[in-house]
Amino acid sequence: MRRILLPACLALLAGTSILQAQECDRSDDSQQMMNICANEDYQAADASLNKAYQDLIGSEDANGKKLLQAAQRAWISFRDADCAHTTAASAGGSIHPMVVSQCLTKLTNDRIKQLAASANCEEGDVSCASSDEDDAQ
């Protein structure tokens, strides 16, 4: 049984690597390419998020770093759970990877705005960290 399972797992991993190695071609409107492009968009947003997080955490004192790390871990758990919930209807379909990537990208971009707003807060100004200020006006 193990002899059969190992080659099957290796074949699956090889297929996944090939899919991930393809570059986005936005002129190709096949579902597979739309999935690849949506994943590329998410990867770019995730890289931007990591930079925004590193910039902000570098300016925090020890207590602020602990609080920001806890907040970021909780936010990642929320993002992943929220996207799992909101995309559940497409599970098993060929569109599902694209829908999940789009959800992750949207929430990640929202978080980048929140972190950027926090980075520009003056000490003691509790109202400036809200990224919804512009949306409410």
Q: What topology does this entry show?
A:
Layout: H1 2-21, H2 31-57, H3 62-86, H4 96-119, H5 133-136
Beta strand %: under 5%
Principal-axis shape: elongated
Q: Give the termini separation.
A: 63 Å
Give the low-pLDDT segments: 8-17, 133-137
**CATH architectural category:** Up-down Bundle
The chain-level mean pLDDT equals 84
What does this structure look like?
This protein is mainly alpha-helical and 137 residues long. The chain has a single domain (30-136), classed as Substrate Binding Domain Of Dnak, Chain:A, Domain 2. It is 73% helix and 0% strand. It has five helices and no strands. It has helices spanning 2-21, 31-57, 62-86, 96-119, 133-136.
What tags apply to this protein structure?
mainly alpha, Substrate Binding Domain Of Dnak, Chain:A, Domain 2, 0% strand, 5 helices, disordered C terminus
What is the gist of this entry?
By secondary structure, the chain is mainly α.
